[in-house]
Design brief:
This protein is an all-alpha fold. The protein has one domain. It has 13 helices and no strands. The two termini are 19 Å apart. 49% of the residues are buried.
């Protein structure tokens, strides 16, 4: 069991690193003149095409029935809704506040897991989640301010993503990570395709812009999503979400390397706190599930 949790933690660490790199890739994509809707549509379209090709070539089983509908809703409603509320919040609040509100999701996932997945909420695990949240606040840094609407939208993004993870953890009990992620990508690409067709956004210009978009699709979407689903299968929704707080640590390290941004002392401290929480969770025993009322004990 300990080795399985370690493998799960490594999967989530790979996912967080891949997601964390997206901010760097996006900087180059936007610098080439691309607009948000265009980048998001290309991101999910390229990912969906690549993953569908792998599914067909390897003749893997596709989700069906209820699970197929849930995964499609996760992509078309969950992913799109989270992206819409997150980017809308940036128009009414600082980037630091919006990012911090989004990273409430590990705490929310832990609470939702306790309520809906019957996972026991132990004091040490809750402390690890709160420590990761505090480390995230330090890592993101200053610039905390915004309008009430921005706060509501930022919290909505966190809540939507939390529900997405909790629902996904139930589906992943009987679906392969690649197949599940492929359906999510196809649904998200379809919705963003409609948005792109109706808004006519600006597309990337030049080799650098298109390379950045391709890296977003392959590294920060295909690898990131499949690795997260694989890790969640082994760790559960709450611990996988908490381990994902490695993402801002990866972002500020890569920003320092590739964009020349200076690393602040508070980011070092925040990163150390997050790493401590991650190491503890990777070594901890999985949370026990509480049997629902009326269930027979075994």
């Amino acid at each position: 069991m300990a080795s399985e949790r370690l493998v799960g933690a490594l999967y989530v660490a790979l996912s967080a690193s891949s997601f964390g790199a997206m901010a760097i890739f996006a900087r180059y994509a936007y610098g080439s003149g691309a607009e948000v809707v265009a980048v998001l549509f290309l991101r999910f379209l390229i990912a969906a095409l690549l993953m569908t090709a792998v599914m067909i070539v390897t003749r893997r089983r596709w989700p069906a029935g209820r699970n197929l509908a849930i995964l499609a809703a996760m992509g078309g409603i969950g992913y799109v809704g989270q992206s819409f509320t997150f980017f809308s919040a940036l128009n009414h609040a600082s980037a630091g506040l919006v990012a911090l509100l989004l990273y409430l999701y590990p705490f929310l996932v832990t609470l939702l897991g306790a309520v809906f997945l019957r996972q026991r909420l132990t004091a040490p695990r809750l402390c690890a989640v709160l420590a990761a949240l505090a480390g995230t606040a330090l890592t993101i840094g200053g610039g905390i301010g915004g309008e009430p609407l921005g706060i509501v939208l930022g919290m909505s993004a966190a809540l939507i993503y939390s529900v997405y993870i909790v629902v996904g953890s139930r589906v992943m009990a009987c679906e392969a990570p690649l197949a599940a992620a492929t359906v999510v990508m196809i649904a998200a690409a379809a919705v963003f395709g409609v948005l792109a067709a109706t808004t006519a956004p600006a597309w990337p210009q030049g080799a650098a812009g298109w390379t950045a978009v391709l890296l977003i699709a392959v590294v920060s979407t295909v690898i990131a999503m499949v690795a997260f689903f694989a890790g969640m299968q082994k760790l559960g929704a709450a611990d996988a979400a908490t381990l994902s707080t490695l993402e801002p640590v990866v972002t500020f390290v890569l920003a320092a390397i590739f964009l020349g941004e200076k690393i602040q002392p508070n980011q070092v401290l925040g990163g150390a706190i997050i790493l401590g929480a991650v190491i503890w969770l990777a070594r901890a025993r999985p949370p026990a599930a509480t049997a629902p009322a009326g269930a027979a004990s075994r």
